[in-house]
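Repro:
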Amino acid sequence: MSRIRVLVGTRKGAFILTADGKRTSWDISGPHFAGWEIYHLKGSYADPNRLYASQTSDWFGQVVHRSNDGGMTWETVGNQFMYEGTPGTHQFYDGTQHPWEFKRVWQLEPSRANPDTVYAGVEDAALFRSNDGGLSWQEFPGLRSVKGHLWQPGAGGLPQVEIGGHPRTIWQPTGQCAGSGGDN
């Protein structure tokens, strides 16, 4: 019988819930990162034991973690998210232009084919990719440079993109192609 795993990020840490296919009894592991706000927790499609977690705090800032054993142990990976070139400005909540600055990772999306490739959607709005399991990050500057100056004033979080389907395509929630990337 297959097993079910639910990854939960909360303001008080991360939890991993597992059950058999009938879902009659659940095992709960956690809290992992007790007391830390977890923005996103995601497992790899290519390697179910590879997990990624995005946590943040006002004191320590943004931290990305990776587990290679299904969440039993965690290691901190790369946290250098640098906008390529001269970032310029974007529209701020009050309508004024504001310089781009990295704040946090909202979304982590592992590749469907390679457990070492993972994408990160960040605030201020941009998309990054790592090909080495999260140790280093490179921005997709084309997504920000075309109309990025108009994106930011959402104030309720950022839109989610899907990295999937065709291995070189990134899709917006509307289903329209947002850009093309490397190997997925």
